[in-house]
Design brief:
Blueprint: H1 2-13, H2 19-52, H3 60-104, H4 107-112, H5 115-167, H6 169-206, H7 208-213, H8 217-264, H9 267-270, H10 275-287, H11 289-316, E1 335-343, E2 349-358, E3 363-367, H12 374-379, E4 389-394, E5 397-398, H13 404-408, E6 411-414, H14 425-429, H15 439-448, H16 452-456, H17 475-489, E7 493-497, H18 505-518, E8 523-527, H19 532-536, E9 539-544, E10 547-552, H20 554-560, H21 563-569
Parallel strand pairs: 3-8, 3-9, 6-7, 7-8
Antiparallel strand pairs: 1-2, 1-4, 4-5, 9-10
Length: 575
């Protein structure tokens, strides 16, 4: 419970900037509550006037009724509209904060969580926060003011009878508490199953070519059906709890009303009460049941919102990438590994006691079977993976002492899996820190990557929007765009992780020429299985199970007749 209060207070802190707008909400719902009480009071005057035969004021009553409805409508509009303004702004600001946080989280978070569940937190869970904040507060203020107004009127009119209603409040409180526990559990389950639904959709959209080529449509439909059905079941259970809660509360209130009527109709209780006062009292007591029911309905919104708040704040409180480095050196490209170890969260020992000295401007080739740790090793350079022990140096500066953005801006990577964005060709090549590059520089990089010709053949050339993942392009074309991006970056350290695996022989020949030029004067680390660069590298490092098995030039390693020789004989096809 204490944890819930802390989370709720933290959530309400996001509403502080909107206190000015909240004044209009208070004004609107105060006007609405005042009209509710006024209805009971007006009934008293009408009945008393009829009973006394005083017709003089009756002509004003129709106008008063219209006036009351006008102010009630105006109050509801002000309260409802400005609550919605606060609600939408709240979602906007928290969603921006969550998205910014996602950009600062370490790579491990994305390995541990599916993209569907991450997206669900950003889109669905953040939306649910309004249920615990603005929506609940709207109901609390609107219905709370009405309950306070009606109870005050009832206490003023006959405080003894009103105690009959107040006696039942603890019973309602117990009922609400029981329902809250159940609804919280179901809310968490609904959010989790929404993540499952999202995950299935994203996998199907991203892998639509595989789905179609293996005729997996019926399987994916079944998978989506099962995830959606589970989400539906949890949602309906919440509806059951909510809809049982409300009638039971109304039944308790009707018992209170029955007791009031039974007592009120005793002659000794009525005494000299006028018919108008009696009807007004009973009307006010009857009117109180609807806002009390609505107040108990807050429970469902509150539990739904608090479950989402726990989820969102848990993400916001996650440890970010460590960036305590203050230095922003211009790197020359010397890299030194000293007894480096890397373990993944599942216990896999990816890199073991790895030591290697790479001189600036040299080309290093990493070879070995699949799973040898080559990609894990290069991922430590831009700190996508944090080493567990040992040390990594750039130009004799420990990697942790270099400011993260400065470090990454000086490392260019071309991966086997190319990532392209739903933007123009130019924007994909001149991405991020490169967006200020001139058209001439972009074209020069594309020509160097043997991409200019196919780009010019596209409908709008460099202004062609590629669509999601650039799937309209061939694998080789997409890879050449990634290579153009790396060439344009012109960084002192270049990492090529199977960079030409998707290229045909002709393209690879031209790319090789581009790489030979690009490698001049910069440190290059190559992971490849059929590039001639491997043979021409200054140093070839053979890896297995995260360790160095052999190292040397091509000629030296061939002469050793070790693992490199075996891989070379099989043309590295096992890599």
């Amino acid at each position: 419970m204490n944890q819930d209060i802390k989370v709720y207070v933290r959530l309400l802190a996001y509403l502080k900037p909107y206190w000015g707008i909240a004044l209009f909400v208070l004004l609107g719902f105060t006007m609405n509550a005042a009209t509710e009480v006024s209805v009971a009071k007006l009934l008293k005057y009408i009945i008393d006037a009829i009973e006394s035969g005083n017709r003089e004021n009756l002509n004003w009553f129709p106008a008063l009724i219209v006036l009351l409805m006008f102010f009630r409508g105006l109050g509801l509009f002000l309260g409802g509209y400005f609550t919605a303004v606060i609600s939408r702004r709240l979602v906007f600001s928290i969603r921006q904060e969550v998205y910014a946080k996602l950009l600062r989280l370490p790579a491990q978070y994305y390995l541990d969580n599916s993209s569907g569940h991450i997206t669900a937190k950003l889109m669905y869970n953040v939306e649910q926060l309004t249920a615990a904040s603005s929506e609940s507060l709207k109901t609390l203020i609107k219905e709370g003011f009405i309950v306070i107004g009606l109870l005050s009127y009832l206490l003023y009119t006959n405080w003894r009878l009103t105690l009959c209603i107040i006696v039942f409040i603890p019973l309602i409180g117990i009922l609400v508490r029981i329902a809250a526990t159940r609804m919280r559990k179901l809310s968490i389950q609904v959010q989790d199953t929404m993540g499952d639904v999202n995950h299935v959709v994203q996998e199907t959209v991203n892998g639509n070519a595989i789905v179609k080529s293996f005729t997996g449509e019926s399987f994916e439909k079944q998978r989506f059906y099962q995830s959606s059905e589970e989400n539906l079941r949890r949602g309906l259970k919440m509806v059951v709890v909510q809809n049982i809660n409300s009638p039971v509360v109304q039944l308790i209130l009707s018992c209170a009303m029955a007791l009031i009527l039974w007592i009120a109709l005793r002659p000794q209780i009525l005494g000299d009460t006028t018919a108008g006062e009696f009807v007004a009292y009973i009307t006010a007591a009857g009117l109180i049941s609807r806002p009390v029911k609505n107040l108990t309905d807050i429970n469902e919104k509150l539990q739904r919102g608090l479950a989402a708040a726990h989820s969102v704040f848990e993400l916001l409180d996650l440890a970010e990438e460590q960036n305590q480095g203050q230095l922003q050196p211009t790197l020359k490209g010397a890299i030194r590994f000293e007894q480096v170890n890397l373990r993944y969260s599942d216990g896999t020992h990816a890199i073991q006691d790895f030591s290697l000295n790479i001189a600036a401007g040299k080309t290093i080739a990493l070879v070995g079977r699949s799973g040898a740790g080559k990609t894990s090793l290069v991922n430590m350079l831009p700190r996508f993976q944090e080493l567990d022990s040992g040390q990594l140096y750039f130009d004799d500066i420990a990697v942790q002492e270099i400011e993260l953005s400065s470090l990454r801006s000086q490392i260019a990577m071309v991966n086997q899996q190319v990532i392209l964005f739903n933007r123009s060709v130019r924007d994909n090549i001149a991405y991020g820190q490169l967006q200020t590059a001139s058209d001439e520089q972009v074209i020069a990089a594309a020509k160097a990557a043997y991409a200019h010709d196919f780009i010019m053949a596209l409908p709008q050339g460099y202004d062609t929007v590629l669509g999601a993942q650039g799937l309209s392009l061939s694998g080789g074309q997409r890879q050449r765009l990634a290579i153009a991006r790396a060439i344009l970056k012109d960084a002192p350290i270049l990492i090529l992780d199977e960079a030409t695996s998707a290229l045909d022989n002709e393209s690879e020949y031209f790319i090789q020429q581009a790489f030979d030029d690009a490698m001049q004067g910069r440190t290059t680390i190559v992971i490849a299985h059929r590039l001639s660069t491997v043979e021409n590298a200054d140093l070839i490092v053979v890896m297995d199970k995260g360790q160095i098995i052999e190292q040397g030039t091509h000629a030296e390693l061939i002469a050793q007749h070790g693992m490199y020789y075996q891989l070379h004989q099989r043309n590295f096809e096992d890599n």
